[in-house]
Amino acid sequence: MDDIEPVRRIWQQLELPGVVDVHTHFMPKPVMDKVWKYFDSAGPLTGREWPIRYRTAEQDRVHTLRRFGVRAFTSLVYAHKPNMAQWLNEWAHQFAVQTPDCLSTATFFPEPGAADYVRTAITQGAKLFKSHIQVGHYDPNDPLLDDVWGALEDSATPVVIHCGSGPAPGEFTGPAPIRTLLRRHPRLVLIIAHMGMPEYAEFLDICDEHPHTMLDTTMAFTGFAETMMPFPADHKHRLRDLSERILFGSDFPNIPYSYAEAMTALIELGVGDEDWLRNIFYRNGARLFGLS
């Protein structure tokens, strides 16, 4: 499986120093094993065969990203029950200490004490948080999260938030809870995962209304996603105007296709020039996270 050269060729032809990927997953092994087992079962949140292309040992996966030329990536951890987030944050902090090109990542869950461990993570240098509304099955406007969002808003710490209703809807997914959240915390830096799939147009509207809201490209536009939840053709032109607020994300290692395909899908959209692609693959992420 020679996936390295196609990826490197893309960013080299754009005269970039590499790639910034805001949506990659590194987790404690028992947690990652359970995630992979779920994908293998074609469970209700996937509903189809989902072969994990980069199912290798942890350090092999780090090495693969480095060989791709990914200059910065994330360890997006997320909690689906109480008394889990703080432990994940401690693991992710140590992983980032040992892996300098990994942006220190943290998460939270609506539970007593959440604001305390979120503030601790910020103090320890967390650059990014992950919120998974679908898997966590929680309302982002739960009162237990009021101080969490306040701390994230005050520190301008970005949050990658899976809030769209893909690949399967949840009780709290969709644009309506996010609109409510942003009315209450308008300075939040939200990165809408998967371009808000499948409510693409509605989340584009939210970006238009909230200048701190961004989108990540994770899985969007690929053949795998387009067969289930195609991006509406009559809204593609809007992506050009958001050239500084779209970030590249891959979902590595949990993707059923090559890393290069995730990048090529953006190129083949044909909605922007090379500068548009440079922004998405590197510049926007580098600017957001203060990378040289």
UniProtKB/TrEMBL annotation:
Assigned keywords, A-Z: Lyase
Domain Amidohydrolase-related: 20-291
Pfam families recorded: Amidohydro_2
CDD domains, sorted: metallo-dependent_hydrolases (cd01292)
Keyword Acetylation: no
Positions of transmembrane segments: none
Keyword check for Lyase: yes
SUPFAM superfamilies: Metallo-dependent hydrolases (SSF51556)
Database matches in InterPro entries: ACMSD, Amidohydro-rel, Metal_Hydrolase
Family annotation (PANTHER family): 2-AMINO-3-CARBOXYLMUCONATE-6-SEMIALDEHYDE DECARBOXYLASE, ISO-OROTATE DECARBOXYLASE (EUROFUNG)
Name of the protein: Amidohydrolase family protein
Gene source species: [Mycobacterium] burgundiense
